[in-house]
């Protein structure tokens, strides 16, 4: 039930939406997609303003181990791992977030920190050391003589508004649950995720359904008028964390683990 005259985009995938990260500068979100059946991992990028999927695939590696690490100023950074039984980081790939093009990679490095000007990598070998590299090319800017301490840089952060998470023991849960009951007639249980932005109230809550849990998401105005409502999870065994976030004035959430939705606020 989306608000009229508002943009609403939906993207469905065969694998589960495992991780979602927002770019620190551009209106782009990146996704890590995993299929347990085929043991395949893919990555994708979406422009949240126009609702276009910019690309989808795995230019980084053919194996199961890489994972989405950061999205910094148009660069999508993927961290590799040795293997599932040994989740030790090893190898990074840097892609253009807008097109998925592989810009450079280092098969043995570990990303320690990064911003738009530099990345700090830990390199492997007989003696581990730290190096500062150019994010766009991987060219070494500086070698750090003392390999025992990670050099400090101001990390890049996306302008994401996360939801607050309140369990049933929290006094704020009771207040929010009463509000939900008044406007929906339903009684939330277990936990509520909550955020107020641009005079909108956004609430993700759970109700019992045949011994399991359903997860609903709603947007209302300050008067309690429901503007948007969506069932985003069914027959769940437990509650989740961070079931939604707001990025560039867009509500971003995952439905049934395999569908990403973007709703303009």
Structure commentary:
The mean pLDDT is 89. The chain has 265 residues and is mainly β. The protein has one helix spanning 171-184, and strands at 8-12, 16-22, 28-35, 40-47, 52-57, 67-72, 75-81, 89-96, 102-106, 110-114, 119-123, 129-133, 140-144, 160-162, 164-167, 189-197, 200-209, 212-220, 226-236, 244-247, 250-255, 259-264. 5% of the residues lie in helices and 54% in strands. A 5-stranded antiparallel β-sheet has the order 1-22-21-20-14, with no helix packed on it. The protein contains 1 helix and 22 strands.
Key terms for this structure?
22 strands, single chain, 5-stranded antiparallel sheet, 265 residues, mainly beta, elongated
Summarize this entry quickly.
With 265 residues, the protein is mainly beta. It has one helix spanning 171-184; strands spanning 8-12, 16-22, 28-35, 40-47, 52-57, 67-72, 75-81, 89-96, 102-106, 110-114, 119-123, 129-133, 140-144, 160-162, 164-167, 189-197, 200-209, 212-220, 226-236, 244-247, 250-255, 259-264. Helix content is 5%, strand content 54%.
């Amino acid at each position: 039930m989306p608000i009229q005259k508002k943009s609403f985009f939906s993207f469905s995938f065969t694998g589960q939406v495992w991780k979602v990260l927002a770019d620190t500068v551009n209106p782009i979100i990146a996704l890590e997609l995993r299929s347990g059946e085929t043991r395949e991992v893919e990555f994708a990028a979406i422009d949240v303003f126009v609702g276009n999927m910019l690309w989808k695939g795995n230019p980084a590696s053919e194996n199961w181990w890489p994972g989405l690490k950061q999205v910094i100023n148009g660069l999508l950074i993927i961290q590799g791992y040795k293997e599932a039984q040994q989740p030790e980081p090893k190898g990074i790939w840097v892609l253009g977030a807008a097109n998925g093009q592989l810009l450079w990679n280092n098969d043995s490095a570990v990303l320690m920190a990064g911003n738009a000007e530099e990345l700090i990598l830990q390199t492997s070998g007989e003696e581990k050391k730290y190096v500062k590299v150019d994010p766009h090319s991987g060219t070494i800017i500086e070698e750090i003589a003392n390999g025992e301490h990670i050099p400090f840089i101001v990390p890049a952060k996306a302008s994401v508004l996360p939801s607050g998470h309140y369990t049933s023991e929290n006094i704020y849960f009771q207040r929010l649950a009463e509000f939900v009951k008044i406007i929906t007639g339903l009684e939330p249980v277990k936990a509520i995720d909550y955020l107020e932005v641009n005079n909108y109230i956004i609430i993700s809550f759970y109700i019992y359904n045949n011994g399991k849990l359903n997860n609903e998401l709603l947007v209302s105005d300050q008067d309690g008028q429901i503007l948007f409502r969506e069932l985003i999870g069914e027959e769940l065994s437990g509650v989740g964390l961070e079931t939604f976030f707001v990025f560039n004035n867009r509500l971003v959430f995952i439905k049934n683990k395999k569908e990403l939705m973007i709703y303009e606020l």
